[in-house]
């Protein structure tokens, strides 16, 4: 009787959430695939063109450039992110003074909107009104000054740096939780055997955290492949397409050129590529599970 | 354990090493000063590293604040770190009313609060049967929710745009709130199901013996026990909704309905071509300060919610 009463609430409890999910997520998701096989006109009428959009995507130099930039962004950002995040997480676990303050400062940018952070850094990078170039000149390093966001060589790393600056707090929190769950007796044993902190870090902590690293690397890849706000606000994809990524390209194709079908195909290809890459990374980094 | 994790003894070098268990349990606030590790040489490196991070963050905000106190001519004419000549609070009132930051702020409050409330309430209702009532297809329903965590949600923007147009929800705050609530659901359901599964199974049986129906059991017994979980998902959803940029850009066109991130972006575009920088900087401060204050109060909740969602469950 109790079970029967419970069964009666299943549908009414689930329905509202499923309804929202259906209308605003599942239906659009299915329709994205459908739209990717059509060609839209500016008036909103459309007709099916089969796989034409997909064959176009594959040879579109603009799309290939966007993909290349997305990978580069992921790679450059990852190289900036992980060493620093691991160092900070390790440092915060050393029971130092002012730990709460440092945790606050490291995490604070995370709670700010990407729009504000991007705008702020756009000005920080500004060649004459910003902070970086005048500071370099002040230090006598004027030769290093450049138009950071206007130079095809530096724009992508500059945007990647801001993305990392904004989000590093999340990764520090997750890594920190990993450090905290390391078994104290193993670390203790290491200390008794005379291992210094560096040795413990390199030979005990890093190997034991490998599973966590694997998850975080996959998360980073998935997340940075869909970066949008920073690139859109700071450079809009320029200069000369050097920061154009799939998100900004899709947005332009859809709303400036009104080619909805083509933009949808770009999105579907991105999802497929992302799933493949995530699987690959997961496999490459997989070792036997550690139990502790 | 694999060989790479074995601790190999290191030939005892230099200083004899350290003290008994330095392990701590439970974080934030409850540690006393006496509990801290004694200062050691390598701590200097830690302080330098963390100090640099803290300096960059604080410096960036100090700079924004300083510029927000300047005049436009001062901003162009002086070196970036020159301290503003006076306290020009009128930049803030200009930003608030003339540049519409007040209205953006109001829109953001309305949209984020309603979306967060809707997303959390619906997720709590949906999570209950998924976590505690065995039924056929529950695994399937749960994976449909979790699909939302795996598919990059940005990809669906074209049909979403078309759907919103068909429903007459394009360029409306209601439409934006519904979309945000939907995109909060997968994470909220995922975390709340995890939390609910940890509650003991006797709860419902005891309630049934006492004559409570399932709805009553859920509202009076399960929900009150979910306090920390609900707080976590509410805070994280709210932050996400407050800061969301992409869907606001796609779905909202009229300036009077824009949220803060979108409004500031528009202001930034205008500053690019015009000369009104200081108002933009004041607008940024107005956007940033309340969020940072709330975060300072709820720091532990926010970070705990994050680890609960990402690592457990």
UniProtKB/TrEMBL annotation, chain A:
Annotated Gene3D superfamilies: MalF N-terminal region-like, MetI-like
Localization: Cell membrane
Coiled-coil blocks: none
Principal location: membrane
Domain annotation ABC transmembrane type-1: ranges: 67-281
InterPro entries registered for this protein in UniProt: ABC_transporter_permease, MalF_N, MetI-like, MetI-like_sf
Membrane topology: Multi-pass membrane protein
Entry's family note: Belongs to the binding-protein-dependent transport system permease family.
Protein name in the entry: ABC-type sugar transport system permease subunit
TrEMBL record, chain B:
Protein family membership: Belongs to the binding-protein-dependent transport system permease family.
Compartments where located: Cell membrane
Keyword field: Cell membrane, Membrane, Transmembrane, Transmembrane helix, Transport
One example of a Gene Ontology biological process annotation: transmembrane transport
Disordered: annotated segments: 1-35
Organism of provenance: Jiangella mangrovi
Highest rank taxon of the organism: Bacteria
Protein name: ABC-type glycerol-3-phosphate transport system permease component
Keyword Chloroplast recorded: no
A Pfam family the protein falls into: BPD_transp_1
Membrane-topology annotation of the record: Multi-pass membrane protein
CC annotations in GO: plasma membrane
Transmembrane segments: 44-65, 104-128, 140-162, 174-196, 217-239, 277-298
Domain ABC transmembrane type-1: 105-298
Basic residues compositional bias, start-end: 21-30
């Amino acid at each position: 009787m109790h079970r029967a009463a419970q069964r009666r609430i299943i549908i009414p409890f689930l329905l509202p959430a499923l309804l929202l999910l259906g209308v605003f997520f599942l239906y659009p998701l299915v329709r994205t695939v459908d739209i990717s096989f059509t060609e839209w006109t500016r008036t909103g009428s459309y007709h099916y063109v089969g796989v034409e959009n997909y064959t176009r995507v594959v040879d579109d130099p603009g799309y290939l450039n966007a993909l290349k930039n997305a990978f580069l962004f992921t790679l450059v950002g990852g190289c900036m992110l992980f060493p620093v995040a691991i160092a900070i997480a390790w440092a915060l676990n050393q029971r130092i003074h002012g730990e709460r303050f440092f945790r606050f400062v490291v995490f604070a940018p995370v709670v700010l909107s990407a729009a504000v952070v991007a705008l702020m850094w756009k000005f920080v990078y500004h060649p004459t009104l910003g902070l970086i170039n005048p500071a370099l000149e002040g230090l006598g390093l004027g030769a290093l000054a450049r138009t950071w966001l206007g130079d095809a060589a530096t724009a992508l790393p500059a945007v990647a740096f801001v993305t990392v600056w904004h989000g590093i707090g999340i990764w520090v929190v997750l890594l920190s939780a990993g450090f905290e769950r390391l078994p104290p007796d193993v670390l203790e044993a290491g200390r008794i055997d005379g291992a210094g902190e560096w040795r413990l870090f390199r030979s005990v902590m890093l190997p034991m955290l490998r599973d966590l690293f694997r998850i975080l690397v996959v998360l980073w890849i998935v997340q940075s492949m869909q970066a949008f706000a920073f690139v859109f606000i700071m450079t809009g994809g320029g200069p000369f397409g050097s920061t154009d990524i799939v998100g900004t390209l899709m947005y332009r194709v859809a709303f400036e050129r009104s080619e909805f079908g083509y933009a949808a195909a770009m999105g579907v290809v991105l999802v497929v590529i992302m799933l493949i890459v995530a699987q690959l990374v997961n496999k490459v980094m997989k070792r036997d599970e550690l139990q502790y | 354990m694999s060989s790479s994790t074995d601790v190999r003894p290191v030939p005892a070098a230099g200083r004899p090493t350290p003290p008994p268990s330095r392990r701590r349990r439970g974080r934030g606030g409850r540690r006393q000063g006496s509990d801290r590790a004694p200062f050691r040489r390598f701590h200097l490196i830690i302080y330098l590293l963390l100090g640099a991070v803290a300096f960059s963050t604080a410096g960036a905000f100090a700079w924004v604040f300083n510029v927000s106190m300047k005049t436009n001519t001062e901003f162009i004419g002086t070196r970036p770190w020159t301290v503003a000549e006076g306290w020009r609070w009128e930049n803030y009132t200009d930003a608030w009313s003339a540049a519409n930051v007040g209205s953006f702020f109001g829109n953001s409050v309305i949209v984020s609060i309603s979306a967060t409330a809707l997303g959390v309430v619906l997720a709590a209702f949906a999570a209950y049967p998924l976590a505690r009532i065995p039924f056929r297809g529950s695994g399937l329903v749960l994976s449909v929710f979790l699909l939302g965590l795996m598919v990059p949600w940005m990809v669906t923007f074209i049909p979403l745009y078309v759907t919103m147009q068909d429903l007459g929800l394009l360029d409306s705050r209601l439409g934006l709130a519904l979309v945000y609530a939907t995109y909060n659901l997968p994470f909220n359901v995922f975390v709340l199901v995890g939390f609910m599964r940890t509650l003991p199974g006797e709860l419902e049986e005891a309630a049934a013996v006492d004559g409570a129906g399932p709805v009553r059991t859920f509202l009076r017994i399960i929900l009150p026990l979910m306090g920390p979980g609900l707080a976590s998902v509410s805070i994280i959803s709210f932050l996400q909704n407050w800061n969301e940029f992409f869907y606001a850009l796609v779905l909202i066109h009229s300036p009077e309905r824009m949220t803060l991130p979108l409004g500031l972006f528009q202001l930034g575009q205008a500053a690019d071509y015009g000369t009104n920088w200081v108002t933009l900087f004041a607008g940024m401060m107005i956007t940033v300060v309340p969020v940072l204050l709330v975060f300072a109060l709820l720091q532990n909740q926010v970070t705990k919610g994050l680890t609960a969602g990402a690592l457990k469950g």
